[in-house]
Design brief:
Elements: H1 2-35, H2 39-64, H3 69-87, H4 93-109, H5 111-122, H6 127-156, H7 159-181, H8 196-204, H9 207-238, H10 242-271, H11 278-298, H12 303-321, H13 326-329, H14 337-352, H15 354-366, H16 368-395, H17 397-400
Helix pairs in contact: 1-3, 1-6, 1-7, 1-9, 2-4, 2-5, 2-14, 2-15, 3-4, 3-5, 3-7, 5-14, 6-10, 8-14, 9-10, 9-12, 9-14, 9-15, 9-16, 10-12, 11-12, 11-16, 15-16
C-alpha cells in the first residue's frame, strides 16, 4: 500500500513540475508584449534553463544514491514552488534568467533522479505501470495547463497571476509530502557511500544504456522545440489568439499522450515478462511512426491538420515515455539507477537545450518558413535515434540485461 501512496504524491508533484515547465512557452506572446524581449532572447532563456538543468543533473543523481530520496524530493518540491511563485515578479531578461535558470531549474533538478529511482525500488512487478502513471500526471499537467492559463488570464488579465497560482499549488503539495514522508530518512545506499564513478560507468560505460538513452535525447530535443515554440508558430501561421492556441496545442496532444502512456504501461508489464526486449521494440516503433508526423506538422496547410499531427505526436510520446527510464533500468544495476538517470538527463538536456535557441533563431530570421523547416527536420532526428536503439535491440540487450 505504501508504494501506491508514495506514487500518488509523486504524481501530484509531477503535475506541477511539468505545468511549470510549460507555462513560459504558453505565455511567450504576453511576456514579449510587456517586456519587449525578442525571439532570440526568449529562446536564450529556455536554452539557459536547460543547460543549467543538464549540468546539475549528475549531482542530483549522485545525491539520490547517497541520501534520503524522500527528503530530497520534499525539499525540491517546496523550493521550486516558491520560486515559481516569485517568477510572477520578474521584469525582464535578468529576472527570468535568475528565477527560471539559477533558481527554479536548479531546485527542480533534484526531483527527477530520486523520484524515478524511488519508484523503481518500490515497484518490482508493476514498474512500468507505476512510471506510466507518473508520466500520465505529467500529461495531465500539460493537458490542463493551456485551459488553466486561459481561465486565469480571463479572470486576472495578467500572465503574472499564472505563476502566482501555480507556485502556491506546488508549495501545498510540497508541504503535504514533507508532513507524510520527512521522517522516512532511509538512505538509498543503505549507509554505505558509493564512488560517484560507479554511476558514470553504469551509463557512459554501458553501450546498451547509451543506445537506449539516445531515444530519450531525441525526444527531449523534439519536446523542447514544441514546448517552446509550437504555440507561437501556430498562432503566427494561422493568426490565432493565445488562448485558442494554448487549448489546441495542449489539450488534444496531451490527452492522447496521457491515454497512450497509461495503456502502454499496462501492456508493457504484461508482455515484457515473456519478451524482455518488448520495451525497446515499442520505443523503436513509436519513433518510426513519429518521424513523418513532424514533416506534416511543419508544412500543414490547415489548422485541422496541425491539430491532427500534434495528436499523433502525443500518441508517439506516450508510447515512448511509458518506457523512458524502465528501458534504461533494464540494463543498469539497481544501486546506481539514480546516478544513471542523472547522467542520462545531463546528456539529454545539454543537447536538447539548443532546441529553443535554434528555433528562436529560425523564427527570428525567416519567420513562419523557418519554423516550418525546423519542425520538419525533427523527423531525421527521430530516425537516427531509432537506428541506435535498433542496434541495441539486435546486438547489445542480451549481454547487458539486468533482471531486478
Amino acid at each position: 500500500m505504501r508504494k501506491w501512496i508514495t506514487l500518488a504524491f509523486l504524481c501530484a508533484a509531477f503535475f506541477f513540475y511539468m505545468s511549470d515547465r510549460q507555462l513560459f512557452g504558453l505565455l511567450v506572446p504576453l511576456i514579449q508584449k510587456e517586456t519587449g524581449l525578442n525571439r532570440v532572447l526568449i529562446g536564450s532563456i529556455d536554452t539557459a534553463m536547460y543547460w543549467v538543468l543538464a549540468l546539475m543533473m549528475p549531482f542530483a543523481g549522485i545525491l539520490g544514491d547517497r541520501l534520503s530520496r524522500t527528503r530530497i524530493i520534499a525539499i525540491a518540491i517546496l523550493g521550486w514552488g516558491t520560486l515559481t511563485f516569485c517568477t510572477g515578479f520578474a521584469g525582464g531578461l535578468i529576472g527570468f534568467l535568475l528565477l527560471r535558470c539559477i533558481g527554479c531549474t536548479v531546485i527542480q533538478t533534484f526531483y527527477g533522479p530520486s523520484a524515478y529511482a524511488l519508484m523503481a525500488d518500490e515497484h518490482k512487478t508493476t514498474r512500468t505501470t507505476a512510471l506510466s502513471l507518473h508520466q500520465a500526471a505529467m500529461y495531465t499537467g500539460m493537458l490542463t495547463s493551456g485551459a488553466l492559463v486561459a481561465v486565469i488570464l480571463a479572470h486576472f488579465g495578467s500572465w503574472r497571476w499564472v505563476y502566482y497560482l501555480f507556485g502556491a499549488g506546488t508549495v501545498l503539495v510540497g508541504v503535504a509530502f514533507a508532513c507524510v514522508f520527512w521522517k522516512d530518512a532511509r538512505r538509498a545506499d543503505g549507509g554505505q557511500k558509493k564512488d560517484y564513478k560507479a554511476g558514470m560507468k553504469a551509463f557512459f560505460g554501458n553501450p546498451a544504456a547509451l543506445c537506449a538513452g539516445s531515444g530519450y535525447v531525441a525526444l527531449v530535443f523534439c519536446a523542447n522545440a514544441c514546448m517552446s515554440w509550437a504555440p507561437a508558430f501556430v498562432a503566427q501561421k494561422f493568426n490565432l489568439d493565445v488562448g485558442t492556441v494554448a487549448k489546441g496545442v495542449m489539450f488534444g496532444p496531451n490527452l492522447a499522450a496521457m491515454l497512450t502512456v497509461l495503456g502502454a504501461g499496462f501492456v508493457t508489464d504484461f508482455f515484457v515478462r515473456r519478451y524482455p526486449r518488448f520495451r525497446l521494440g515499442l520505443q523503436i516503433g513509436s519513433f518510426l511512426i513519429g518521424a513523418p508526423l513532424f514533416v506534416l506538422f511543419g508544412f500543414a496547410p490547415t489548422v485541422g491538420l496541425v491539430w491532427t499531427m500534434l495528436i499523433g505526436w502525443g500518441i508517439v510520446r506516450g508510447l515512448f515515455q511509458s518506457n523512458t527510464f524502465t528501458s534504461i533500468f533494464d540494463v543498469v544495476p539497481a544501486d546506481v539507477r539514480s546516478s544513471a538517470v542523472g547522467f542520462l538527463n545531463m546528456f539529454a538536456y545539454l543537447i536538447g537545450a539548443f532546441a529553443p535557441l535554434l528555433f528562436g533563431f529560425l523564427g527570428h530570421r525567416w519567420g513562419v518558413k523557418g519554423f516550418e523547416l525546423g519542425f520538419s527536420a525533427l523527423a531525421g532526428l527521430l530516425l537516427l535515434a531509432a537506428a541506435a536503439m535498433l542496434y541495441s535491440y539486435c546486438f547489445l540487450f542480451r549481454k547487458y540485461r539486468v533482471e531486478k
